[in-house]
Design goal:
Blueprint (H helix, E strand, L loop, with lengths): L1 H6 L12 H31 L6 H33 L3 H29 L5 H37 L5
Helix pairs in contact: 2-3, 2-5, 3-4, 4-5
């Protein structure tokens, strides 16, 4: 019963018009671009933090440590998304399923990080800014969740094609 309800969420077409394989390819490209931007942003952050003369050395070490970790994580995710693009082009269901699991964890991680950062900075920002950040964050998470569901639909489509016998 629960599977039927979940199945209603999975799109049959990408943006109600295009095939799911094109949608999965677009999702992979967008996710790769997001990771590339994050990797570049963390490098820029490291450069600016190391340039700070007024910051205590402990704070610089902590910030650089977190930024280097974020950079390494971004590069690993960039490689995972490149692997996913290869899997989509070769119709590899195991690669696509692995990407679904990894991307789901990344999306959950991003959502938790969004909530934590909004809570941390809520005292520094006005109420309107806080609401706008929350709104745009939820919209971004919703778009990424839709992309994930498109890939799940593509995986189900591939799985059903591979399990059905070919006509003679």
């Amino acid at each position: 019963m629960c599977a039927k309800k979940f199945g209603a969420l999975i799109p049959k077409k990408f943006l109600c018009r295009y095939p799911l394989d094109l949608g999965a390819l677009c999702v992979g490209i967008v996710m790769t671009c997001i990771m590339a931007v994050i990797a570049i942003a963390t490098v820029v952050q490291i450069i600016y933090v190391l340039d700070c003369n007024k910051c205590p050395s402990f704070a610089i070490r902590n910030c650089c440590g977190y930024s280097v970790t974020a950079f390494i994580y971004s590069i690993i995710m960039l490689l995972v998304h490149a692997w996913f693009l290869w899997g989509v082009s070769k119709c590899k269901t195991s690669v696509i399923l692995s990407w679904i699991v990894i991307a789901s964890m990344w999306l959950a991680h991003t959502f938790c990080l969004l909530i934590v950062l909004i809570c941390l900075y809520s005292a520094d920002a006005s109420f309107v800014s806080w609401i706008l950040c929350l709104l745009f964050g939820i919209i971004a998470i919703g778009i990424l969740l839709y992309g994930l569901l498109v890939v799940v639909g593509f995986w189900l489509e591939l799985k059903s094609k591979k399990s059905s016998p070919l006509p003679a």
